[in-house]
């Protein structure tokens, strides 16, 4: 057995012995579903746009046309994606008691679609939108049809501007962020597909006592982690899942 496989096998034992885990996912878990992340070279969204600028409250409030003509279509592309093997394995681990819950920075709803039950979406989601004036909630499909057919920026019947329920740069974090910080202090943390560079989500690993990381590239928290597996999320999780199944059979 290669050293690489030996480390992955030990990581599977570590996961099994210290269960249940809290999972923190970033854009990297959804790249295999066809959604580019923000930072990978060549494919990262930042090579085409500057999300910090366009997907911001500053632009939404002061240049809503720019937000709806450039930023909103980028977000809506995420709606075409379907969960991949990695999302599916995590949903299975929750039903088998290996995962306590998933904290995600993603807005693509793919964990929920894959069957995960306890999901804390700390950057919101693309299922609904609301009016910034009267707070009326509408479906994202309705918002999309307003943008397509009626007007930019889309307006509520009260005259207020409508916005998707995602957390934009410059927004306050939702209450799910506080719940996430509490959860991560009770259980070990497995981070999957995050550069851990975006604040304040990168505070979460600093609160965890036990840490493990699966990512294609290095992160600033690698030194803190008991195991760092550098590879694709689906490949790594599939290997770990096969090893855990053997341990489950023995138990
Ligand atoms: P990031 O872009 O900063 O980092 C993604 C990391 O995933 C990178 O380090 C990359 O090496 C790694 N990666 C890429 N493909 C991988 C794979 N197949 N397996 C394992 N690792 C892989 O992403 P982030 O840390 O999540 O932060 C970016 C912000 O962008 C978040 O706030 C998030 O809300 C938002 N975002 C969300 C989506 C989405 O909903 N799918 C997509 C893009 C950006």
UniProtKB/TrEMBL annotation:
User: E.C. number, please?
Assistant: 2.3.1.286
Q: Name one GO molecular function term.
A: hydrolase activity
Q: Where is the active site?
A: 123
Mind telling me which Pfam families this protein's record contains? SIR2 (PF02146)
Ranges for the Deacetylase sirtuin-type domain? 1-247
Q: Which UniProt keywords apply?
A: Hydrolase, Metal-binding, NAD, Transferase, Zinc
Does the keyword field hold Metal-binding? yes
* Residues given in the record as Zn(2+) binding sites: 131, 134, 156, 158
Q: What class of enzyme is it?
A: transferase
Task: Provide the protein name.
Answer: protein acetyllysine N-acetyltransferase
Q: Which organism is it from?
A: Candidatus Atribacter allofermentans
């Amino acid at each position: 057995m290669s050293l690489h496989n030996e480390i992955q096998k030990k990581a599977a034992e570590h996961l099994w012995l210290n269960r249940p885990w809290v999972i923190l996912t970033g854009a990297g878990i959804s790249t295999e579903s066809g959604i580019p992340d923000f930072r990978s070279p060549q494919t990262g969204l930042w090579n085409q746009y500057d999300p910090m600028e366009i997907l911001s409250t500053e632009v939404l409030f002061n240049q809503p046309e720019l937000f709806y003509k450039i930023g909103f279509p980028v977000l809506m592309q995420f709606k075409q994606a379907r969960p991949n093997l990695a999302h599916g394995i995590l949903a299975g681990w929750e039903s088998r008691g290996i995962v306590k819950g998933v904290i995600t920075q993603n807005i693509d709803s793919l964990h929920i679609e894959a069957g995960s039950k306890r999901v804390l979406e700390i950057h919101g989601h693309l299922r609904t939108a609301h009016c910034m004036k009267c707070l009326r909630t509408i479906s994202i499909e309705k918002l999309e049809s307003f943008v397509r057919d009626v007007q930019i920026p889309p307006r509520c019947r009260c005259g207020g501007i409508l916005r998707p329920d995602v957390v934009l740069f410059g927004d306050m974090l939702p209450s799910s962020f506080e719940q996430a910080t509490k959860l991560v202090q009770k259980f070990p943390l497995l981070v999957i597909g995050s550069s851990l560079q975006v604040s304040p989500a990168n505070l979460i690993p600093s609160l965890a006592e036990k840490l493990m990381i699966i990512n294609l590239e290095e992160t600033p928290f690698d030194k803190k982690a008991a195991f760092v597996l550098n590879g694709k999320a689906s490949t790594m999780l599939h290997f770990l899942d096969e090893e855990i199944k053997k341990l489950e059979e023995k138990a």
